[in-house]
Design goal:
The complex is a heterodimer of chains A (238) and B (133).
Chain A lengths: L1 H18 L3 E10 L10 E4 L3 E2 L13 H14 L5 E2 L2 H7 L13 H11 L3 E24 L4 E24 L5 E15 L1 H9 L3 H19 L2 E10 L1
Chain B lengths: L5 H37 L3 H14 L4 H14 L2 H14 L4 H17 L6 H7 L6
Helix pairs in contact in B: 1-2, 2-3, 3-4, 3-5, 4-5
The chains are: A alpha/beta (238), B mainly alpha (133).
Chain lengths: 238, 133
């Protein structure tokens, strides 16, 4: 009797299972439009990025870093078919005798004049701040104790050094002198140090780290202003 | 007087199952096409998947699954108008299916973000009740 009941229940469950429909999740490419009017802003001049006024936390950096970030951005934009960018050498030639300073960021009239000089629709300018933050950390793990004949809890102290880059990017409309884009991109990376390597890292060059963080920040900006594809999930019903 | 007989209960269940099998016999071809199309879609062969789902719709124009899946395929290849039409048809045929509504909603949200959708956002919200994800 019990067996029959079980069989009956099983059949009922199987029947009900047949009533449901399985779903398959697939990811499809969806086109994401540019966040700016690419019909209007099709050509740009990218000016060297400015190091923000140093605070006590700021790292000392080589002077050409701002120009390198701008060059990375130019390369990224030039790869997009929708944009034309004034080349690095051309920009340097046209800017001869002028030093891009922090005061330029708010002087849209001057930037607009420069834009006319460059014969572009938009001027890209920005500033950056790079600093590091070091904190002692403790890593917990296990080690085998010969005396106790078992694994015991152990820890190791180290210094975690976090590098942070804050990159502000602005686009100025040359015709209207309006700021049409003003966003800050923050990127960070961390490394673990012993006391010895930490001292060396304080004295060592930071330029590679800022270049890498700059590339990441710039690529995010380029992605936002260029039409691109992203993947989204949809459901197929079996 | 009627008494509960487990054997009779099982017999009724088997009858239900067999009747289900009979229906399955009729739709086995469309089911096979659907399964094949889903495998094609998983392999990103969207044109093949579209072809199969169109065949399913030719056989059974009221197959809501095929309309929904066709909508996904159209969206994947960038035919947004046709995707919207297919999603709408699927939702008409089976208004309570949350996956159809979810696909339709996401497609419309994507359209709105792209600035291609003229319809008012509030209208879409009224059109579709909230979906549990």
């Amino acid at each position: 009797m019990q067996t029959k009941k079980t069989i009956g229940m099983l059949l009922a469950v199987l029947t009900l299972c047949g009533c449901g429909s399985a779903v398959t999740r697939v990811s499809i490419p969806v086109k994401v439009q540019s966040e700016i009017d690419i019909g209007r802003y099709s050509n740009f001049a990218v000016l060297p990025f400015v190091a923000e006024k140093q605070t006590e936390r700021n790292e000392k950096l080589p002077e050409e870093i701002g120009a390198e970030i701008a060059a990375t951005l130019r390369r990224g934009l030039a790869r997009q078919k929708h944009f034309e960018v004034v080349g690095t050498q051309e920009t340097a030639r046209l800017l001869t005798g002028e030093t891009v300073g922090e005061d330029w960021l708010s002087d849209t009239a001057h930037l607009s004049q420069l834009g006319e000089y460059f014969e572009v629709k938009g001027i890209i300018i920005g500033s950056f701040r790079f600093y590091s933050d070091s904190r002692p950390r403790r890593y917990y793990g296990e080690r085998y104790s010969v005396q106790r004949q078992r694994y015991v809890m152990d820890y190791q102290d180290y210094m975690q050094k976090t590098y942070l880059l804050s990159l502000r990017v602005m686009i100025i409309d040359v015709e209207t002198e309006q700021v049409i884009w003003d966003e800050t991109y923050r990127r960070s990376t961390a490394e673990a140090h012993t006391i010895g390597s930490f001292i060396f890292s304080q004295a060592g060059p930071q330029s590679n780290t800022i270049r890498e963080l700059g590339k990441r920040a710039v690529s995010e900006f380029t992605r936002q202003i260029s039409p691109h594809y992203e993947r989204e999930d949809r459901y197929l019903v079996n | 007087m009627l008494k509960y007989n487990p054997l009779a209960f099982i017999a009724i269940l088997v009858c239900f199952m067999l009747s289900g099998c009979a229906v399955f016999q009729d739709t086995s071809q469309t089911e096979a096409y659907n399964r094949f199309a889903i495998r094609a879609a998983q392999a990103q062969l969207w044109n093949e998947a579209i072809f199969r789902w169109k065949q399913v719709i030719d056989v059974d124009p009221d197959d809501s699954k095929a309309h929904n899946n066709l909508g996904v395929a159209y969206e994947a290849v960038g035919n947004i108008d046709e995707a919207i039409a297919a999603y709408q048809r699927a939702a008409e045929l089976e208004p309570d299916n949350k996956y159809y509504r979810l696909n339709y909603r996401r497609c419309r949200i994507h359209l709105r973000r792209s600035g291609l959708d003229d319809e008012d956002a509030s209208q879409l919200e009224e059109e579709l009740p909230p979906v549990e994800q």
